Amino acid sequence: MSGLFRGRTWWKRSELKKSYDVVIIGGGGHGMGTAYYLAKNFGITNVAVLEKNYIGAGGTGRNTTIIRSNYRTPEGIRFYERSMELFRGLSQELDINMMLSKLGHFTLAHTDSSVRVQRERGETNRLLGVDSKLIGREEIADLCPELNMSMDVAYPIQAALYHPPGSVLRHDAVVWGYATGAYHKGVHIHQGVEVTGIRKDASGKCIGVDTSEGPIDAGVVVSAVAGWTTQVCDMAGVRTPITNHPLQAFVTEPVKPMLHKILVSANLHVYVSQTDRGEFLIGSEIEPYTTYNLRSTFSFVQHSVANALDLVPQLARLKMMRQWTGYCDMTPDYSPIMGETGVENFYLDAGWGTWGFKATAVCGETMAQMAATGKTPELIAPFRLSRFADEQMVPEKAAASVSH
What we know:
Layout: E1 19-25, H1 29-42, E2 47-51, E3 66-67, H2 74-88, H3 90-94, E4 101-102, E5 105-109, H4 112-127, E6 133-135, H5 137-143, E7 159-163, E8 167-168, H6 171-184, E9 188-191, E10 195-200, E11 206-211, E12 214-223, H7 229-236, E13 243-252, E14 262-265, E15 270-274, E16 280-284, H8 298-311, E17 320-330, E18 337-340, E19 346-350, H9 360-373, H10 387-390, H11 397-400
Parallel strand pairs: 1-2, 1-12, 2-9, 5-14, 12-19
Antiparallel strand pairs: 3-8, 4-8, 5-7, 6-7, 10-11, 11-12, 13-16, 13-17, 14-15, 15-16, 18-19
Helix pairs in contact: 1-6, 1-9, 2-9
């Protein structure tokens, strides 16, 4: 193992065994959640999580921290609502303070067509028991007086989809909480171990992985690597419709609490929230080009700052502190890919685009069930890889096209 990972950790390091019942590729929230629920719900502890970098180095460690369930399709709403249920009890279950703050989530509509879309979303949410509704300008101003409600702007706010359960919580606490919980149940966590190949037998069944530390036999292999999905799937000979796009965000200097709602503009493609440290977290849409380059751009700052100031002009005098870029694995219908791949015993948890963090809990639960039983849980059946060939897509762009 690389010397980079021999320092202090929250657990005692385990020797890498030659064989495991389940190997999980990717040490982010989804991979760690899967390992934890395998041990908790099914008693399967002969599990290895392989992470080529460090735990939480990818999207789990750099995201908007927002969780919500106000999606557009019935499949998406049910799926994310289950995640919200799990998140609400996670601090107590994992004995780590997730600092979950129920703030309320606004999806702002600036055009007539956007108002129609948000109204449809609200009605669909309410039919499925999710607290979400379309509200007008007067109620918006009352709930969030920091918003610029002037009509003398290019895109005045006409209405908003208001989702009171919308919350934020600590992304690092989620991944480390699941990692610590999994470790104490007997799961092996290996940082600095890169998967270099997917091993198959003569019949094409997955039987393990090749790694930078040598081959490992496995009964089941689960890939949960987000932006690196196409690379891992290429090793397995699995084709996906995923494309990789960069996503950028930045935070300002910290100030006293001022903004107590989560703001997202459906037309300006910008989101704004204030963290528990007082920083304003601001981001935009994915970049239109595909790349694995993590370089931040000035054009993103221009776009995001201008649109954020249209919404909250009081931010104008704040200084930017940090800017960063991450990878997003985008699917054509803006819904994830979960479950079987066509290669026996090789399962996929991918296609999360910009909305993967809020699904962390339910992904861990359902992928653990998939790996333990070999059967597709009903909750993720609509997100199967074969839906693209079957032309049964789950179009979620109306609720997921803004990166929040």
